Amino acid sequence: MSTLIICEKPQAAKKIAHALGKAEKVKEYYKVKKNGELLYIVPAVGHLLGLEPVEKHPHYPVFRLQWEPTFLDKNRLYTKKYYMNFERLGKKVEHFIVACDYDVEGSVIGRNILRHICGRDDAKRMKFSTLTKNEINESYEKASAHLDFGLIESGLCRHYLDWFWGVNLSRTLTDAIKGGKPAFEVLSIGRVQGPMLNLLAKREREIDVFKPEKYWQVLLRWGKQEALYREDLKDEKVAKKIVRGCEGKEAVVSDVRKVKVKVKPPFPFDLTTLQVEAHNLFGYSPKQILSVAQSLYTKAYISYPRTSSQKLPEKLGLQRIIEALSKQGEYEKLCGRIAGKTPNEGKKTDPAHPAIHPTGEVPKELNSYEKKIYDLIVRRFIACFAESAQRESVRIKLKIGDYEFRSSGSRTLEPGWIEFYGRYAKYEEKKFPDLEKGNEISVKKVEKLDKETKPPKRYTQASILHTLEKEDIGTKATRANILETLYHRNYIKEKSIEVTELGMKLIETLEQHCPKIISEQMTREFRQYMDDIRDNKRRREEVLNKAKVVIAEIVEELSSHKREIGLGLDNALIKTREEQGILGKCRCGGNLKVLFSHKGSRFCGCSNYPKCHNMYPLPHKGFIKKTDKVCDKCGTPIIYVFRKGRRPFKMCLDTECETKRGWKKYSGKPDQKVSGSKKKG
Known about the structure:
By secondary structure, the protein is an alpha+beta fold. The strands form 6 sheets. A 7-stranded antiparallel sheet has the order 14-11-12-13-10-9-15, covered by helices on one side. Strands 2-3-4-1-7-8 form a 6-stranded mixed sheet, with helices on both faces. Strands 18-19-20-21 form a 4-stranded antiparallel sheet. Strand 20 (about 600-605) and strand 21 (about 615) form a beta hairpin. The protein starts with a strand and ends in a 29-residue tail after the last strand.
């Protein structure tokens, strides 16, 4: 008797194999003998099949698609050996188990391998939220008899919809640009990408049309404290009058109000709140946070991160986890104080996974990013079990004659969970001297403050994720990647997100000629359709037929306005290309620009040529993005290099720079993950 266990990635396969028994590694997979049965634990490397059109032709829209091996793309040739393992072993085993991540993508990956490589329609399904030994064995013993076809159908539908929108519309847009010479460029737009960009563009317009208005405040300084006049003033003369009327006079306390409030512990992390919190604390991008969390999950240190849940059910063995964490020195005393207590949970749930939590496994060899995210998750977890904090809010009113000033602040009386969350708990601490009504206050100074109203704040990467979740645009697993795509397409820039001229022009053009592409409502509708498929309330074919009608209408609208679209985006594309091509300043003061030789290879040269002959080779492949930073060793600009299917890396331009010491031979790609400048983390 033999069984093939399909895993999503090599690291997961290794964990599962060693959890199930004494594992023997054979090439990229493992063999385990368990209860008289031979198990083959075989990994994929993500998707081994992708959607491609049945007929290769340039006419759009295209709806006839088929699943093809990803190794047919020369950039993903590395997937071939994993594909062949499944093809070969699938012929010699009697049974199959899918042990990919229990979510939409994992379910699609497992189903495609099972059906298109191994030729089977059904299998057992292991479902787990951590890669710990106990949970893996339990999920193996209690594997469901069949696949979760609702989840699979929903995932397959999403892949088809993303192709319908992304490829059909992006290529139709690109055709419009191609006709509008000279700035031929590939433009992308997608089912979620368009509405997300539109949401950011709306904020950009609010900022652009905002006109600041002047107003004045009157500030009273007393001791180490400050108080403001009871209202903002629109007339400067009134502000000056108040200052004159208060000069040289004492203030009297007219009212003191103290309110004690209990502040409950935070909820455990779901993916979005983890991304928001970690971004605000450490400045990491949402995509980077998810990548780090995924790494911690595959090492069995935390539970599955792609979850919407704020629940920690008792069946997880919460007290066992707390006891295990207490053996990690820095958490020992805190864990000892929450034994036997129950967590504070939120309302959000997830049908597949609980809230993000540590497993209790002792981490080994964590990098600086992993250490921070792991510590944040552990402290959030144990803080959920702690007592409520008690804080005191104080409001004070001061009077000088008929002029009333107000001051307020809060302080912590009993830290409760705040102590457990430690440095991650951000609360203002403002203590007032003991005051009673009628006390006289010695005034240091009364002054007029000139103020202006502020425009709406720009979205940060954290706040836009929160807004997208609130508006139900995208999914928890895809929002960070789509946001990253908007950056790579030069539609947005900066951490405090600005929509570029190209991004704004694209939205303006689509609003004018095809507003459906950026419709938030339509995106929500299709998202709901996919949830209905998951819950067996709709069929995939029904939803795809609806999508085909919409896509055909959009393509027709775009095609009928090709000339206007091309001309409308032309100038923005030229300007974007010029800005993107400047990587930084040369030592002579000129601009270092991306240039191409007569053979087509790219390099970096100075705009002051022939007076300046500084030039540097550039990586032959990958997308290059400037960082506005300079290497502290050689003084040349630092760039980001993004390569399909591989980690991005940093590098400076100088091939002889000491930061490249240890590279086998300079070819624009390092041996290490990040090079060029030493990034503190």
